[in-house]
Specification:
The protein is mostly helical. The protein is about 75% helix and about 0% strand. The radius of gyration is 28 Å and the shape is globular.
């Protein structure tokens, strides 16, 4: 038995739409000899199967055990070829690559003039759409052909191609350096989260400025500006400068409105820019702009002109529901937000094989927070346990840490404190191991640890003491991140004032509305 959730062929077959399946069968049937082909029989079997059972495939006589591996590889390739030919998967990049392939074929046939004519058109298309890597490849091929096809304009042509190659090379080098820096910063963010002290702030700041290449702003095109904003955005996230996060995510999104055709050509980048803009607005607690930006974003991605494919559908689900949850967190409307839980769980089931563990765990954490805000502590614990017991999760250690701290609080509120001491000890060891023990976390653990020695009539005074201790860290440059994951202060205020935590947050929300 093969693990069908991990088998690339099975996952690919199950991801095909009805039109893609029809396209594949039309592609296979272009030659009569393929109608009884083994790879088509395997495709039909997998299409109808709920799981991948290799023994059943062999038993049906579709293929022998020795041939199965090769047949699966062949079918996988044929599906991709048929999808490549489908108009649904055609875009500017595929058109450029197709023209380059045609030009290469003509070149090898010695039809140099025809090849150069196609390359010129493809190059113009690439430059118009800021596809500089493809444009550079085309220029290099043009240079090869020009050395073999002598014309009277060879001298001016040589100068022209040399200048173009140099300009495109400089752009591509700059783009590569900026994208490398952006990727490295993103990796640091996923692994360790935000900076924890002055030393880490200094290290990441020096790293960022050392790796940031020099550039002439007047020479930057769409692609270079995009990666520049990305790099600045990730640096701003890591050092917890959320105003700068808003600034650069806004620049990122506005860049697409400056180059509107890039929205269709780069829909994923457009969506991600909007997601980070929405997240930045949540972090700076700009409730009104968060809601208006989310509405505009949802209208854009649901419009008929916006591209649609499986990846875009998955990202739309991920970004829209994450930010809808954030709206409810800012407003304190947790009960209304519960209506999002089932669609989210359905989406995780639908897209789970294409979503990484990190993004799934973020959903579980937010659902846990939602139920905490509703005083549904057992449900909160249920979703947090999915994070705590996830042994494969190696990213966002800060998420794992706060899941444990919130779980402790939820156990206390649910009256499930009979194992609290062992959980406290386990959580404390985990935080030390992760080197993630902050003052907020230490104060919370001390408070929970001492609860057993406090008389009922003293509990409100202890809540007040803890609130006073934690309040000083609310705007601390490194400690404030604790309040991004868990609104401890509102929880304490709800216990002190005898009000539901949702009501406390709603009252604060009215003050924050801009």
């Amino acid at each position: 038995m093969t693990n069908d959730q991990k088998d690339p062929l099975f996952v690919l077959v199950k991801s095909l739409s009805k039109s893609e399946k029809r396209q594949f069968k039309v592609y296979v049937g272009r030659l009569g000899g393929n109608t009884d082909a083994k790879f088509l029989a395997l495709f039909n079997h997998l299409d109808k199967s709920a799981s991948l059972d290799e023994q059943e495939i062999i038993k049906k006589g579709i293929v022998t055990k020795l041939q199965l591996s090769n047949l699966k590889a062949h079918l996988y390739k044929q599906i991709l070829v048929s999808m490549r030919l489908s108009p649904v998967h055609q875009n500017v990049r595929s058109q450029i690559r197709e023209q380059m392939d045609f030009a290469t074929i003509l070149y090898h046939k010695g039809l140099y003039k025809q090849s150069l004519k196609i390359l010129e058109k493809a190059k113009n298309l690439a430059i118009e759409n800021d596809e500089n890597t493809s444009a550079y490849e085309i220029v290099e091929l043009e240079k090869i052909i020009e050395t073999q096809y002598i014309t009277r304009s060879i001298h001016t042509r040589a100068d022209e191609l040399t200048i173009q190659a140099k300009e495109l090379s400089m752009k591509n080098v700059l783009t590569s350096k900026l994208s490398n820096l952006s990727l490295q910063l993103y990796g640091i963010m996923l692994k360790t989260g935000y900076v924890k002290n002055d030393t880490e702030h200094k290290i990441i700041t020096e790293y960022f400025h050392d790796k940031l290449p020099t550039y002439d702003w007047s020479l930057l095109g769409f692609r270079e500006k995009l990666w520049l904003y990305k790099a600045h955005l990730w640096y701003s996230f890591i050092v917890q400068d959320f105003i700068s996060c808003y600034k650069y995510s806004k620049k990122w999104v506005d860049l697409f409105y400056e180059y509107p055709k890039m929205i269709t050509l780069n829909p994923v980048f457009y969506m991600r820019g909007n997601h980070y803009l929405l997240e930045s607005l949540y972090l700076i607690k700009d409730q009104s702009q968060l809601k208006s930006t989310l509405i505009k974003f949802e209208q854009t991605i649901s419009s008929k002109t916006f591209p649609v494919d499986d990846n875009i559908e998955m990202l739309s689900f991920q970004f829209v529901y994450n930010n809808r949850l954030n709206v409810h967190f800012l407003e304190g409307t947790f009960t209304e937000g519960e209506g999002l839980v089932q669609p989210i769980l359905k989406g995780i089931k639908t897209y789970g094989d294409r979503m990484d563990d990190h993004h799934i765990m973020v959903f579980y954490y937010k659902i846990g927070c939602l139920y905490f805000g509703m005083d549904e502590y057992r449900k909160c614990i249920e979703y947090l346990s999915k994070i705590i017991h996830n042994k494969s999760l190696r990213m966002r250690e800060d998420l794992m840490c706060f899941a444990r701290v919130l779980s402790l609080v939820a156990h206390y509120e649910a009256g499930m404190d009979y194992h609290l001491e062992s959980q406290l000890r386990e959580t404390y060891k985990f935080l030390i191991k992760m080197d993630d023990l902050h003052e907020v976390q230490k104060a919370m653990i001390r408070f929970l640890k001492n609860l057993g020695d406090i008389f009922p009539h003293q509990i409100k005074d202890e809540f007040k003491k803890l609130h006073k201790t934690l309040k000083q860290y609310e705007n601390h440059p490194y400690e404030k991140r604790a309040f991004l994951y868990l609104d401890i202060l509102s929880w304490l205020e709800s216990n002190i004032e005898g009000k539901p935590v949702a009501q406390i947050i709603q009252e604060k929300s009215k003050v924050l509305i801009r």
